[in-house]
Design brief:
Blueprint lengths: L12 E4 L5 H11 L2 E5 L9 H4 L3 E4 L2 E6 L2 E4 L5 E4 L4
Parallel strand pairs: 1-2, 2-6
Antiparallel strand pairs: 3-4, 4-5
């Protein structure tokens, strides 16, 4: 699946926790302010707590969010939606 992260229209990034590229999809969605749809959610991994709590901080004039062990620049149009099979 190829996504154009810099397009004028903000495309919905579709992924699941089982997707091997999940972390990269999440980071790119945060960095470019894209909406992220996570499908088939059963349990939420604790590494997502900072994202779910929108724990952002400023460092050197940039707004950042910690995702796992990475600092990711946060773009405020980022939204994350999670759906279950139920």
């Amino acid at each position: 699946m190829k996504l154009h992260y810099h397009s004028e229209k903000r495309k919905l990034v579709n992924t699941s926790f089982g997707d091997r590229d999940f972390l990269q999809h999440l980071i790119n969605a945060i960095r470019f302010g894209l909406p992220l749809l996570v499908q088939d959610v059963e349990k939420i991994d604790p590494f997502l707590n900072s994202v779910l709590n929108k724990e952002v901080y400023k460092k050197g004039g940039r707004v950042l969010m910690r995702v796992g062990d990475q600092e990711v620049e946060y773009f405020d149009t980022f939204k994350m939606y999670m759906i279950t099979r139920d």
